[in-house]
Design brief:
The complex is a heterodimer of chains A (234) and B (290). Chain A is of the alpha/beta class and 234 residues long. Helix content of chain A is 34%, strand content 25%. Chain A has a single domain, classed as P-loop containing nucleotide triphosphate hydrolases (Rossmann fold), CATH 3.40.50. Chain A has a six-stranded mixed beta sheet with strand order 6-7-8-3-9-10, sandwiched between helices. Chain B contains eleven helices and two strands, in the order ααααββααααααα. Chain B is mainly alpha-helical. Chain B starts with a helix and ends in a 12-residue tail after the last helix. Chain B has one domain. In chain B, 49% of the residues are buried. In chain B, helix 1 runs antiparallel to helix 10 and helix 3 packs across helix 8. Classes of the chains: A alpha/beta (234), B mainly alpha (290). Chains A and B meet through helix 2 and helix 3 of A and helix 6 and helix 7 of B.
Chain lengths: 234, 290
């Protein structure tokens, strides 16, 4: 049984259909990346899984249980946390409070403040400042730490590299293998294809709301990715 | 000279009551961006609830809170969950209109049940007890109790918001209700809890209003006005600001009344206008990065 199995997912913003019949499965312990151009529906997919976007999937099975119609606030407690696009730290909370609020659902597990500070020592130094006073990279570390505080089995990363300097992106991506070693399954949405291919065991490419390619990074050629990314007629 | 000291001192104590009006309003606005036009009527409603608890069940006024507070808490939760949550969104207008309508409904329900007669909650000797501080200078025990309670409530609220898990959830939801859901926070529940919490304070304020002044079903809007003025003078979203705003309002009303009995209310409004002109965001505006 897959950890997450999405069957025939359609998603809408009002009348606009953003996703068409997406099928996707993730095994426990995997790192899976979804790549694709702007507007391909990658973020919408993550938001559907996390319960923020209403969807009409046949089923989103998580550990065999259909979560497609569960409220977003319930889904965290099931073990799915999200690092949202743009970090979305809470401005009136300090760094430490932002981390603590990540554990609001009080799901049992091994992650705590000390371990997060061990992984990102800079956050311990800056624990008392407002989350939004941090640099972009530090904010992203806080957002990752906040997701880990929920003790998730699956983390959804939405555009980790967006708006960050390349050197900072490297720092952030270095933390992912550590998280994976702890048994957390990773699902990344990423525009930076090279970064995505570095960490992913498997890749899905989305194009205009549909899956245009799936595969293992080492088996994918540049041409096949380009075709899946931009469409074969371009 | 001593008369002026007395005027200011009484004004400060009155400010405690205004701070209680304002604290509930500040919580509701702070967490939900909901401008609650019915706040004054809820204060009057809770004064009536206290009156019934005292008259019918024979409670001592302060013991009546044992009945009033749970009733107001549950009422607040249900009100928010069943009606007001549906008005929340990017637009401030729907909650304004709905709470305005609710204000009329509550006033008329109270009128039906209790008539337009002026009421008062009797607190026995407590109403006239006073402490002599100096020659010709004394403070009433009851206003002092109100002020001390107000200060403790604000300290308690400050602690709740700054140091507890639920307080963090209130602030996170206030910042960004969508992202808060990703933390496992049910924003609808948090909004309803914040209204319930606000109505707890309203319950206490209602009892104090009932003891310190006459009230009738139409007394709500002027309480709302004082609450608004105190909140805005203090700075939206600041709890200590509500106390400062309440005190400024109370002191200026008392000074106005001292100059001419007809100027009491006007002087409060003038102080409000002056502060709005010089400090449009209030005395303690909440710092926000967005």
């Amino acid at each position: 049984m897959s950890l997450l199995e999405v069957n025939n997912l359609d998603a809408f913003y009002g009348d606009f259909q953003a996703l068409f019949g997406i099928n996707l499965a993730i095994e426990e312990g995997e790192a899976v990346a979804i790549i694709g151009a702007n507007g391909a529906g990658k973020s919408t997919f993550l938001r559907s899984v996390s319960g923020l976007v209403t969807n009409t999937a046949d089923a989103i099975n998580y550990r065999g249980m259909d979560i497609s119609h569960r409220a977003a606030s319930d889904i965290v407690g099931q073990g799915i946390a999200m690092v949202p696009e743009g970090r979305k730290l809470f401005p009136s909370l300090s760094v430490e409070e932002n981390l603590l609020i990540g554990g609001y659902s009080q799901r049992a597990g091994a992650w705590n403040l000390e371990r997060i500070y061990g992984m990102f020592p800079i956050l311990k130094e800056r624990r008392d400042v407002a989350g939004t006073a941090l640099s972009g990279g530090e904010q992203q570390m806080t957002a990752i730490g906040r997701a880990l505080m929920a003790n998730p089995e699956l983390i959804l990363f939405d555009e980790l590299s967006l708006g960050l300097a390349p050197i900072v992106i490297n720092d952030i991506y270095e933390s992912l293998p550590t998280i994976k070693q702890e048994g957390v399954t990773l699902l990344l949405v990423e525009q930076d294809i090279n970064k995505a291919l570095e960490v992913a065991d498997r890749v899905y490419c989305f194009q205009e709301g549909r899956v245009s390619l799936t595969g293992v990074p080492r088996n994918l050629t540049k041409d096949s990715i380009a075709a899946a990314y931009f469409g074969s007629d371009k | 000279m001593i008369e002026w000291v007395n005027t200011v001192l009484q004004g400060i104590l009155t400010g405690g009551l205004y701070a209680l009006f304002a604290a509930g309003l500040a919580i509701i606005f702070g967490v939900m961006r909901l401008v609650n036009i019915t706040h004054g009527d809820l204060i009057v409603l809770s004064a009536f609830v206290a009156m019934v608890a005292i008259d019918v069940m024979g409670f001592n006024p302060f013991i009546s809170l044992v009945a009033v507070l749970p009733i107001m808490f549950v009422f607040g939760y249900i009100l928010q969950r069943s009606i007001l949550n549906f008005t929340l969104g990017d637009d401030l207008l729907p909650p304004l209109l709905v709470t305005f309508g609710l204000s009329i409904v509550i006033q008329n329900l109270l009128l039906q049940i209790f008539s337009a007669d002026s009421q008062r909650i009797k607190a026995g000797s407590l109403e006239i007890l006073s402490i002599q501080l100096y020659e010709n200078l004394s403070v009433g025990v009851f206003p002092l109790i109100v002020f001390i309670v107000a200060v403790f409530i604000i300290i308690g609220l400050q602690y709740l918001f700054s140091n507890t898990r639920i307080g963090r959830a209130f602030r996170a939801t206030s910042d960004d209700a969508v992202t808060a859901q990703l933390m496992g926070i049910n924003d609808r529940h948090i909004f309803s809890l914040s209204m319930a919490l606000a109505l707890l304070i309203v319950g206490i304020a209602g009892l104090f209003v009932g003891i310190s002044t006459n009230f009738d079903p139409s007394a709500g809007p002027s309480r709302l006005l004082f609450a608004f003025e105190a909140v805005i003078m203090g700075g939206l979203g600041s709890l200590w600001g509500t106390l400062a705003g309440g005190i400024i309002l109370g002191v200026s009303q008392n000074i106005g009344a001292k100059l001419d009995p007809g100027w009491q209310i006007l002087a409060g409004h003038i102080a409000f206008l002056v502060i709005l002109v010089f400090r449009p965001n209030g005395l303690f505006p909440r710092m926000r990065d967005d």
